[in-house]
Amino acid sequence: MLQVLGTKLGLTSVSVLKHANEICRKMESGPNVISLSFLRLSQSCKCVIALDLAANKFGCHLKESDKSMAIKLSGLNKKAYLNSFKTVESLLGEQQKSSIRELCVQFGCTDIADVAQETLNRYQSAMVKNGCADIDFKSTLFLAAAVEAACLKYKYKIDRLKLRETCSVKKAVFLRLVEQLVKYAEEIKSEEKVVVQKKHRNFIEEIDAKSREFEPTSKKALIETEEPALNYEEWKRKILATATRAESEN
């Protein structure tokens, strides 16, 4: 059944099918059987969820069209499917341990990883202050949206459709979140410009000060302050004469 359903979803990789089979085995036996039984999932639904989870693990995230097909094959409506998917994912420990840096590596934009992370951090702080502390800001949705926002402000070209598909959410939801995050990415970019301008100005001022410090003194001042070099032989003669005179007096 896995192979048939996998073909319909465009998942034919041996690694994906093998891991999906392992997930199905865990759903049928093990400590979570009783908990999963309350979901009352059909065998085909379990297989679809297993394939979906396996695809995520190996980076073969289902496209929107394939996701719709998966929901249809599961026999559930969208809300029920997503809830069941999240429950199985949590109980079996199949959550994706992703990060902004990993996404940036995947999409070839590692230079803006720190900006994307700071963008998300500022957004999270603002949301927490507004009483939204229970949101999972580490979910792929927020990570991908932060990367998208940073790429937009810093003009990085990436496969934005593929990035959005990693979240498995509607386009409107993703873009709405990106729009909110862009404000913080813009804030960071503006701050960087100020720092660069200050550094440039300080450098110029330092050069100017150094040039003034080493400005040539007027010839007259040099003549007035210059002490004539002391002739060594004259100095030696005076010292010996003084010593001889002191000795004769004694």
From TrEMBL:
- Broad class of where this protein is predominantly found: nucleus
Which cellular component appears as one GO term in the record?
nuclear origin of replication recognition complex
Q: Which UniProt keywords apply?
A: DNA replication, DNA-binding, Nucleus
**Boundaries of every ORC6 second cyclin-like domain copy:** 99-183
One of its Pfam families is ORC6
Instruction: Establish whether keyword Nucleus is in the entry.
Output: yes
Gene3D superfamilies found in the cross-reference section: Cyclin-like
Say if the entry is tagged with keyword DNA-binding. Answer: yes
What are the protein's GO molecular function terms?
DNA binding
Q: Which GO terms describe its biological process?
A: DNA replication initiation
* Boundaries of every ORC6 first cyclin-like domain copy: 8-95
Q: Matching InterPro entries, A to Z?
A: ORC6_cyclin-like_2nd (IPR054113), ORC6_cyclin_first (IPR008721), ORC6_met/pln (IPR020529)
Q: Where in the cell is it found?
A: Nucleus
Family in the record = Belongs to the ORC6 family.
Q: What is this protein called?
A: Origin recognition complex subunit 6
Q: Which organism is it from?
A: Octopus bimaculoides (California two-spotted octopus)
Give the organism's phylogenetic lineage: Eukaryota, Metazoa, Spiralia, Lophotrochozoa, Mollusca
